[in-house]
Amino acid sequence: MKRSFQILSMIVLSLLVLGPLSAKDLSEILSSAKANSPTLKQAQLTRENSKLAAKADTLTDSTSFTVSSGDVTYQGASVINDSSSDWDNQAYLSAITASPSLSLTIPSNATDSTTISLSMDDSGVYSLNNGTQIGVMNPSLSVGHTFTFGKTSDERTTLLAQYNYLLADTTYASSEQDFETSILSNLVEILTEERSIAETTRTIEKAQKTLDDALTLGTITQDSVSAKQQQLSILASRNTLASAEAKRSAAVALFTTLTGLEYDGVTGIGEPDLSFTASQDGNSTVKLKQQAMAIAQENLDIRKAQDTNTTLDLSGGSAWTVSSATGSTNTSSSGSVSVGATLKRQTYSIGLSTGLKGITSSSGTTPFVTVSGSWSNNATKESAQLEILQLQNSVLLAQWEYTTALSDYQSKAASLTGDITNWNLEHQRLIRQLDYENQALEYQQTLFKEGLATQEEIKDAELQVNLATYDISISLLNGLILEQSIATLAS
After folding, report:
1. Are the CB atoms for 93 and 77 separated by under 8 Å?
2. Residue 364 in contact with residue 338, Cβ under 8 Å?
3. Alpha-carbon span 100 to 119, nearest angstrom
4. pLDDT per residue over 226-276, tens digit each?
5. Rounded-to-integer distance, Cα 249 and Cα 440, Å
6. Can you give the pTM of this predicted structure?
7. Does the chain have fewer CB atoms within 10 Å around its N or its C terminus?
8. Distance in angstroms (rounded) separating the CA atoms of residues 304 and 193
9. What is the pLDDT of residue 213?
10. Which residues, other chains included, contact 421 with Cβ-Cβ below 8 Å and sequence gap of 6+?
11. Cα–chain center distance at 398
12. Backbone φ and ψ of 336, nearest 5°
């Protein structure tokens, strides 16, 4: 237990040397960058708009009303032409007529609905030549209902809304994960170049000291081949150092662009959560393909239903003409009632209606029966078959894309599981390496105190601790990138 605590303490202390005291915590960097990212804000707005559009597509009125004032007309002198009233052929000076209406539709499913309509067509007031005014009303009421035998539901709107909701969330999550991964990758690049700078700087320092010592001791001369070789080696290392410094500067500039922050080191790089279990159902990408497959199947079923469904339209109604004159108790009325039914399919329709006409009129009530029918040879049958075949192919294509997406997910899940295992093994090796380098440094410091080690050996040991610390920090960042890969695959 004491040994584990010592190892942990060394790791923590070593991580602190990666940046100055003003270095920012990684979680602070990520949260600040996300909060200020125009890309993420745009992705968030896009997600919200997509969800609002999907919600709007699913909103339907359970009951709809239609109210119309109809035509309101003023007419000059003419003659009443209404054989159903007692004032037929009466001359009038002027008239004001109107035809207001009200319609109420109550849907019961995608194909069936009940409709109730009330109208007062051409009702009005007529001013006769003798000063009498006649009020005429022509109310009519009709009720109809449609029954469909076959597929009556249409789930496409619901399925498409679910698809768009899932797509909006998936797209935003992917944008957020990609953004965080870009920052982590940028930090890996910065630390990698800083590690290279530290290592190359020490290489140059050692090589320069070796050359200077040899020149001072006279073992080589300034113009000797050996001196020239060492100078060329130092020059190559300086070029390597300059390249690393340039790459670090570019990476730091990119860090500022990505986060809006000035880079001054990073601390608090935590252990990644690499727990992952592959799902039998796949991820959101697979589910989107599954939703697309369901939509394609629904499109096919709806199209087939157009050829196979049978509808029965039931209707009933009553129409009346009621009129009366001012100063008279004589009221004229005449009306009719009817009921009917029509059976329809793609190639034929059969209708039957019955009722009474002339109710309360002086000419008497007359019953009536009407029979109608039609038949078509369905000249569009060939084009309909082609349309259905296209929809069937769309279903097969959607099924293939779903199967491919699921197989791709399973392949990526297996690969990701291997990456997790490799990271865990390598990270544990790096922890043991840091432990070893710290022990080696302690050993060299002990030898130095006893006069058995040099200052250069101490510097070399310190460098190895520093490099091992960088390695662990880079490994942790790569682990966090792997965590984002897990989140992407699992979402």
Report:
1. yes
2. no
3. 6
4. 999 999 999 999 999 999 999 999 999 999 999 999 999 999 999 999 999
5. 33
6. 0.73
7. N
8. 64
9. 92
10. none
11. 19
12. -145, 155
